[in-house]
Fold this sequence. Notes:
The structure holds two protein chains of two kinds.
Chain A: H1 2-22, E1 28-33, H2 48-54, E2 62-64, E3 71-73, E4 76-82, E5 87-92, H3 113-124, H4 139-143, H5 146-149, E6 150-157, E7 160-165, H6 172-175, H7 186-194, E8 211-217, E9 221-226, E10 239-244, H8 248-256, E11 262-263, H9 271-276, E12 280-286, E13 289-295, H10 305-314, H11 317-325, E14 329-331, H12 354-363, E15 370-375, H13 387-399, E16 403-408, H14 412-421, E17 426-432, H15 439-442, H16 462-473, H17 477-494, E18 497-510, E19 513-514, E20 530-531
Parallel strand pairs in A: 1-10, 1-11, 15-16, 15-17
Antiparallel strand pairs in A: 2-3, 4-5, 5-7, 6-7, 8-9, 9-10, 11-18, 12-18, 13-17, 13-18, 14-18, 19-20
Chain B: H1 2-29, H2 46-55, H3 62-74, H4 88-123, H5 128-141, H6 145-159, H7 183-189, H8 195-230, H9 233-240, H10 245-282, H11 288-297, H12 301-329, H13 331-335
Helix pairs in contact in B: 1-12, 4-5, 4-8, 4-10, 5-8, 6-8, 6-10, 7-8, 8-10, 9-10, 10-11, 10-12, 11-12
Amino acid sequence: MFNSSLKLAASVGLAAMLIGASAASAKTLVYCSEGSPESFTPAMNGTGTSFDANRPVFDKLTAFERGGTNVGPGLATSWDVTDGGKTLTFHLRKGVKFHSGVNGFKPTRDFNADDVLFSFNRQWKENHPYFKVSGGKYDYFNDMDMPALLDTIEKTDDYTIVMKLKEPNMPILANLAMDFASIHSAEYADFLMKAGKPEQFDQIPVGTGPFIFVTYQKDAMIRFKKNPDYFGEKALVDDLVFAITPDPTARLAKLKAGECHFAIAPRPADLEEIKKDKSLSLISQSGLNVSYWAFNTEKAPFDKKEVRQAFNMAIDHDAIIKEVFLGSGTAAKNLIPPTLWSYNDKVPSYSYDPEKAKAMLKAAGVTTPLEIDLWYLPVQRPYNPNGKRMAEMMQADLAKIGVNAKLVTYEWGEYRKRMQKGEHMTGQLGWTGDNGDPDNFFFLRGCAASKGGQNVTKWCNKEYDDRLNKAKSTSDMAERTKLYEEMQVIEHEEAPDMKIGHSIVFEAMRAEVTGYKQSPFGSHEFQGVDVK
Amino acid sequence: MIKFILRRLLLTIPTFVALMFVTFIAIRLVPGDPVEVRTGEHGISPERLAYFRHELGLDQPIWKQFLDYVWHLLHGDFGVSLSSNEKVLTEFLTLFPATLELSFAGILFAVILGIPAGVFAAVKRGSWFDHTLMGAAVAGFSMPIFWWGLLLIMLVSEGWHLTPVAGRIDMIKFYFEPTTGFMLIDSLLSDQKGAFLSALHHLVLPMIVLGTVPLAVIARMTRSSMLEVLSEDYVRTARAKGLSEFRVISLHALRNALIPVVTVVGLQVGGLLAGAVLTETIFSWPGVGKWLIDSIGRRDYPALQGGILLISSLVIIINLLVDLLYGAINPRIRHG
C-alpha cells in the first residue's frame, strides 16, 4: 500500500513537470493514428492506415496536389501522350536523392529509370527476384487492372520511361499517383538481396519522400525525421511521430492533453465537444465514396425505367441521412462525391413523394402488393455506417407504396459475390474511390462491369457507355469533364440505382497545428504542416 | 517432490493437445477466410483467390492442414503471420514484454494493496473499514474494465492532469531503441534523464485498471481466509502465550491464511491476460492482447493459433508453479 501511494505521489509531481516540458520540443509533430501498418511497401498494403504510414517515405511518378485530386508532376517532371493515347513517355526528375543511412544503406547514385522499372516489375513479373518476397500480395496493382492495361514499360535512357498501353487509358496517370505505385530504390533492393535479408525491404523503407524512416515499434509508434534534401514541399517539423492509439476516446483524450497534435477519425458523438474546445480545431469534408441502393435491371419490374424512378421517390432520403449517418454523411445525387472534378451540380435530386411513386408504379403496370428482396450490407463500410438500420427504414417507406421488401444478407465476401452474379433484386452497396479520377466511379455503371462484375445494377446503356469509353481515352480535360457531366444526367434519368450518401470525414487537431490540408482521399500528409 | 512435479507435467500434455485442436478449429469456424477478408469493394478474381489459397495451404483438406500445423509446431515453428509476414514467434516475443510488464505491475498492485487490506478488514471485522472495503471489493470485482479505464482517463488524466492518457512513454521527449522490450528497464538503460520516471508515470493508470479485479478478489479472499484462521485454536494459544497482536497476526495467522490466497493469485493470471486485451486497447499499450484481437479481425490463422497457444502455455506453467508453491507453503500437500 505504502509503495503504491509513493508511486502515486511521484506521478503527481511528475505530471506537472511533463506538462511544462512538452511545449518546449515543438518541432516534433505527433499524429495519433489508428493502427499498425501491414508493411512499409505500399504495393503490398490495402488499408488507409498502412498507406498513411508509408506515404511520408515515398514519391510516385505523378502526384496528387496536396488536399486535392488533381494530378501533377512527381518524380516525373512531365510526360508526353502519343500514339492516340497508347504511349506515355515520362521524363524523370534529375538529382533526386534516396534516403541515406537507413538500415546501413548508403545510395551511390541518384534516382533514375531503373528504380521505376524495379518498382513496377516487382508487382508485375512473376519471375522478378522480389516478386515473392514477403508473400507477394499486390492487391492494388491488380485491383486497378494494371496487368490488363500495361503492355510494356521500358527505359530509353536513365531519365526516360516509356509506358505502352494495350488501349488508350488516361486515368492511368492518376493510378500512377496512388500509393501502390510508390518508387523504391532498386539499389537498396540489391543491397538487401546480397545481404541475404530481402524481407527487410518491406519492413525498413528507403524512398525519396519528405520524411526519412527512423524506427517502427509494432502497435506503439512509427518515427520519421525530416528529409532536408527533399525536392518538393519540405517538412516543417524535425520529427514526425505516429503514436498508434486504436481507441477513439483515448485519441481524443491524448489530443486534449497535448500528447498528440493530430488525431484520426473522431467519434461522431465527440464532435460537439471538439468544436467547443478552443485548444482544438475540427475540419471536415465529404469522403471520396458513395453508397447506393442498386436495382437489378435484369429482373422485372426493375427493367422499367419508370419503376426505378418511382422507387427513388418512395424513400425518405433525408430521414436516412439524419438517422443512419448521425451527422457524418450528406445526401448523394450523383455517383461521384462533390469534391471530385466533373461533379454535375445541375443534376436535380429525386424528391420524396410516395403518392407520385405509387401512381408511377401503377402507370408502369406494376400490381401491388409487390414482393421484392432488399439486400443489406452485413458490415459497416466507410459509406454506410449501418446497413441494417437503413434497410429497415427503406422497408417501412416501401410498405407505404404497397411494396413488401424482404430483408436479406450474407457474410461480406459472399454478399459481394452473389450481388456481382446478380442474384439480388435490389441491394445496398457502395464504393470508395481509389485514384480520384471520375472514371474510377463511373465504370461502376459501365457495360463491361455489368457482366459478373462491379456493376451490380446490370444496367448497360449505350449512350452512357460510349461516353465512358471516350472519356477514358481522351487526354483533353475539358472534353472529359463535359462527357462525365452528361453521363450524370443520363444516369439520373435512367435511375439504375438510388444514390444514398457520401460520408463526411472529420479531422481533429490542436489549434497550434498550421498548414494541414484535408485530402479528399481521406489520406494524411504532413509535409508543409507546422506546429506553432 | 520430483514425482509430484512429473505427474503435474504429464497432466499438461492432454491440455496442450486439446488447446491446439480447439484454437485450430475455432478460428476456421468464423466465416470469411484470410484472403477474402482483406478485399474491399474491389473483391478478388477467382484466379487470384485460388492462387493465394494455394500459397497459404488453405486448399488442402482440413485434416492435412491440422497435421501440417502440428508437425511444424513439434519443430518449434509457429508459422508466419499472414498480415505482417513476420514469424509468429518473433512477433509474439516483441510484443509480449509489454503485456508482461503491465500484468506484473497489475498483480503487484493487487497483492501489495489487497493482502494488507484483507488482513486489516479481518482483524477489524464489523468495523466501518471492513464494510467499506468489502463493498468496494464487490464493486471492484464487477467493474467493467473498459468503462473503468475510460472513466479513470477522463478523471485522472483529463480532469486532474495527474497521469498521461495513453502509451508507454512520452514520445515527444524520449526516444531510444528497445533492448529488452520492458519499458521500465529500457528507459533506465537509455541514460536519458527522466525517461524512467516517464515510463513509470505511464504505467500507473493501466496498472490500476488491470489490477482492480484481482485486487478485489485478493482482498476478499485474504479477509475470509484470515477470519477462518483467526478462529483456530493455535491462534488462541499464541495469544494466550502473551505474544503481541502483531506477531500473532503476521507470523501465526497470515502464513496459514495465505495458502488459498496464493492459489487465487495464480488463478488470476488467466483473468489478468483477458483483462490485458481491453486495458491494452484503451491505453494504446502495444502488447499481445491487442495483437490477438486484431488477428481475429484479419483471420490471421497462424498468428492466432500461435498466440493463443503461447499464452495458454504460460497460464498452464504459472498454474503449475502455483501448485508447486502451494506445496512449498503447505508440506501436507507435497507429501500427500
